[in-house]
Amino acid sequence: MIVQLGDLVLPDTAVRGWLFSSLTDWYSLSGVKAPVNERPQSHGAFGVSKGFRASAAVSFTAHYLAESEDELLGAFDDILAVANSGVVPLRVTDARGTTERMVSVRATDVEDYRGRTSASIDVDCLARDPRRYSVDDSWLETFPPTESSGLVWPVVWPATWADEGSSSGRIELVNRGVIESAPTYRLHGGFSTALLTDVDSARRIGLDYAVRQGSFVEIDFARRTAVIDGQSDVSRYLVHREWWTVGARSSVRTQFDVTKAIGEPRLQGKVRSAW
Asked: CA 111, CA 36: separation in Å to the nearest integer?
């Protein structure tokens, strides 16, 4: 097993450098935020609300095995630099792969190191989003729907129906995890307007904004924002705003349509599996 905090990599065994032990609450569920309203004149409580989770606390012990006191003090500086750099990814690689949470380091307790060349540090982290996310998800891509070239008659049998250059205009995003997760889409120009549709629920997200060739708008369904070329917020041009998520161990099929296409507009989509 391997723990990675920011750019510090800590395996569970080592003969020199960093290693970790006592990973606590990485796989635990944080508490449900909804209060329990007991029935005053009957058994049990009132109906169950959606189980939104509170922030998650995760801790581990970092060890450093050095050859000199100077090396050990340099390692302390490295982990304190990560702790002071704001929100950083905390990744754990186990037998099923790698998952991550974005955390802030709340405390680091350094034991007395004097006279030794090794020491341990207790690291306490807080993840405001308690879910663990996959890190190996790739972008899926499609072009707006186009017709195939079909079949020219008369035909010699057996015949093969030609579909070169055709596109369904759809991608299917799969959440392998056990908690719903919000997708992210990138709309690459050029087009005048664009529309995304959840095929199964008919919910829609539209972009009433012309995007030139070479630019793209990223729509983040978790933050409910749209940003062009990673710089300017264009969320005010979003229409319909019928947001959706990808359910646990489920998938969402998304239809991509544009108006006044120029060049080769395309859609990219990705969802991170969540636990």
From this structure: 42
Query: What is the token pair recorded at 131?
Result: 């879910």
For residue 84, count CB atoms less than 10 angstroms from its CB and return exposed for 0-12, middle for 13-18, buried for 19 or more: exposed
Cα–Cα distance, 87 to 74 (Å, whole number)? 22
Place of tokens 């050029």: 190
Nearest to 234 by CA among 209, 259, 253: 209
The secondary structure of 14-27, three-state, reads CCCEEEEEEEECCC
Secondary structure class of 237 (helix, strand, coil): helix
Residue 239 vs residues 55, 190, 217, 258: alpha-carbon distances, Å = 31, 19, 14, 14
Q: Name the residue type at position 224.
A: R
Return d(Cα 143, Cα 168) in angstroms, integer.
Answer: 8
Structure tokens at 14: 């080592």
- Residue 71 near residue 65 (C-beta atoms within 8 A): no
Report the relative pairing of strands 8-11 and 97-110 from DSSP bridges. unpaired
**pLDDT, tens digit, for every residue of 123-179?**
999 999 999 999 989 999 999 998 655 555 665 566 555 555 568 899 999 999 999
Prediction pTM value: 0.83
Phi, psi of 111 (to 5 degrees): -75, 165
